[in-house]
Write a structure and sequence with these properties.
264 residues, alpha+beta, ten-stranded mixed beta sheet, globular
């Protein structure tokens, strides 16, 4: 039967998720390990691409093996062959009608900012450092402008190849945990660099360089040049992908782990 897996990875040392000739990618090392376990070439379908330096605690993949292996082999056997910064967290047999990308209802990302005057020595490749004091309450207020269905042209990369810039943000929140400021956003889909561009705009508001009302101006402009700089990739995590209940995928604790046990 087809197999579904949930993958966690630190993207710091990879050229993104998607396989690329001559480059080290997360998909590349995962498929190499699965191929060894299966003893035949394995290609996976995935819930979404992440860019160079971006991480995931809940990347979902599925594949249809020709060989018969139990779930322990697919999980623990694959982990034994993976680099230490990639891990299979969960697996199960899945129906033929499951597709990691097209069956997904929404995706959820978290962008983590280390907000302190001195740069961190730990988690350097896992958080974005912002030395200017951020007012997370102002960022939260500004973020609500982006709720709902909008044309997000101002928040997508120039090279974005999506046919439509319209996306539906179903939930967005900015909160603080000590020196960490977190942007948590769920949508039916994301454009290239969309979360990082949202983070850049909200940090401009939180640092006092722009007013709350400016976010709506950027949104309505439908012009990438009207926004802020794209925030770095280091703080970005794919933390959840939702599917219809009939597929019975695991509901795991949202990451990243250093945020602690936050409410889902």
């Amino acid at each position: 039967m087809p197999i579904a897996l949930i993958i966690e990875y630190d993207g710091s040392q990879y050229h993104g998720w998607q396989s690329q000739p001559g480059l080290r990618t997360v998909q590349g090392v995962l498929e190499k390990a699965l191929t060894q376990v299966a003893d035949h070439p394995v290609r996976v379908t995935y819930s979404g691409r992440t860019d160079t330096g971006v991480h995931a605690t809940h990347q979902v993949v599925n594949f249809d093996p020709e060989s018969s292996r139990n779930i322990r082999a697919w999980v623990h056997g694959t982990n034994a062959l993976l680099p230490k910064d990639v891990s299979v967290k969960w697996g199960q047999e899945i129906g033929d009608d499951f597709h990691a990308r097209y069956s997904a209802g929404s995706r959820r990302y978290r962008y983590v900012i280390y907000n302190a005057s001195i740069r961190p020595a730990l988690l350097q490749g896992n958080v974005t450092w912002q030395y200017r004091r951020l007012d997370h309450a102002l960022m939260q207020k500004a973020a609500q402008t982006l709720l709902g269905q909008h044309d997000f042209t101002s928040f997508r990369a120039v090279e974005c190849s999506a046919k439509s810039p319209v996306r539906d943000i179903q939930a967005i929140e900015v909160f603080r945990r000590g020196d960490l400021v977190v942007l948590d956003v769920t949508a039916n889909g994301f454009l290239h660099h969309m979360v990082r561009n949202i983070a850049g705009v909200l940090m401009a508001v939180g640092s006092g360089r722009q007013e709350v009302a400016w976010v709506e101006e950027v949104l309505l402009a439908k012009d990438r040049r009207q926004g802020a700089e794209t925030a770095p990739p280091y703080g970005l995590y794919l933390v959840d992908v939702s599917y219809p209940k009939k597929f019975n995928l695991a509901s795991l604790t949202l990451g990243p782990w250093f945020l602690g046990q936050l409410d889902a």
